[in-house]
Predict the 3D structure of the following.
Amino acid sequence: MGFRKPDLDSAQQAIRACMGEIRSPYNDGWTSSACKRDLYMLKSWLDDEYKRLPIFAGEQQWEHERLIGILKKD
């Protein structure tokens, strides 16, 4: 059995569901705020952990592609 890259689809689905709860006009501010705090804590954790990962060749290209995509949206 070899390496199997983890599937992040379920993580994305959970995050999208949380965003849906935050944006829902049927939720009160208490519920939406709690969901948003959870996303913030996840984002903060991911940022911290990402900084500790090794740097690979070609990563700068990923960043450039992301920036170009952001600039094209405006």
In short: The chain has a mean pLDDT of 93. The radius of gyration is 17 Å.
